[in-house]
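ARCHIVE CARD
CATEGORY: sequence design from structure
SOURCE FIELD: tokenized fold
FIELD CONTENT:
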């Protein structure tokens, strides 16, 4: 699986769900209401993790919580489906 292509598709998944890209302290986050998420690739594990915060103050301080890992050893469609499901269930709570 091509790393850069999957990052683009993951970002499109965020945007299609209503997240907006924002740059904070030079780092790209995806924002939904007061939830801020960033994707980090863990090269040693060949996986992505979503790091998140529930407010801008924590983001500015770099205080982020780690979410589930998304390993690249599954199909692209499975990875994107799991990402979408997790975003809806864990990061878009009203």
């Amino acid at each position: 699986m091509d790393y850069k292509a999957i990052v683009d598709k993951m970002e499109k998944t965020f945007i299609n769900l209503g997240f907006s890209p924002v740059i904070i302290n030079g780092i790209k986050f995806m924002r939904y209401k007061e939830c801020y998420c960033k994707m980090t690739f863990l090269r040693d594990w060949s996986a992505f993790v979503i790091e998140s915060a529930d407010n801008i103050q924590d983001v500015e301080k770099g205080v982020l919580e780690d979410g589930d890992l998304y390993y690249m050893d599954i199909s692209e469609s499975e990875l994107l489906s799991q990402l979408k499901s997790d975003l809806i269930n864990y990061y878009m709570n009203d």
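CARD ANNOTATION: The chain has three helices and five strands. The chain has a mean pLDDT of 94.
SHELF: design records, drawer C
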